[in-house]
User: What shape does this take?
Amino acid sequence: MSEGVRIHSTAIVEDGVVIGPGTSIWDSVHVRGPATIGRDCIVGEKTYIAYGVRIGDYVKVNAQAYVCTGVTLEDRVFVAAGVVFTNDRFPRAFADGHDGLAPSEPNEETLETVVRTGATIGARAVIGPGLEIGAFAMIGMGAVVAADVPPHALVFGSPARVRGWVCVCGTPVVRGDDAHATVPQTRTCERCGRRYRFGGEDTRLLPEVA
Assistant: This one.
C-alpha cells in the first residue's frame, strides 16, 4: 500500500491489490486481487471491485457499486451509487452438458468495458458488456446502457440514447432536438466558456478564439 491510504477496518482488500497514495476504501468494501486503484480515489461503502479491474487516479466510486472483471475506469471518472457493470454476453448459472455450476473465471465470452477520462455514470445505471463510455460523457440515473457512448454525450433512458452533449465541466451545452443536428454548429458553455462543435460524427472541443 502507498503512503496515506485509508482502509476501513471492515473492508476486505485481498492480496495483489495495488492502491495509490491518498486513496480511501470505506466500510464493507471488497476489492479482489489482483486489481489496481490509483491515487486520491474514493471507494464508497459496500462496493465490490473484482479481480483484474483497473481504476485510474482521482476516481470516485460511490456506495454499493458492482465493478466486475474486465472493467477499466480511467482518470477522474465518477461512478454513482448502485451502478452495476456486466461482462458476460450469454450468462448461465449452469455449465451446458455438465452437472454443477458454470465456472466463474473469464472466458471467450467475457467482454471488457472501458470508461474514459472524466465520464460520469449516474445512480443505479446498468452498463452492458463490452462497451466504451467516451470521455466526459454523462449517463443519467437509472439508464440501461447497451451501446457505446460517444465522448461528451448526455444519455439516459432504457435503452439509453443520446439526448444532448455536455461540457468538460458537466454542464449541458446542447439538449433536445439540437443534439442530433445534421449541420455542424458551435456552442459555448454558459458556465465555463469552453466552445464545442457538434452535429457531425462526434463532438470535440474547439480552440479558444482570441
Q: What stands out?
A: The CA atoms of residues 6 and 22 lie 7 Å apart. The first strand starts at residue 6 and ends at 7. DSSP finds no helices and 26 strands in the chain. The mean pLDDT is 92.
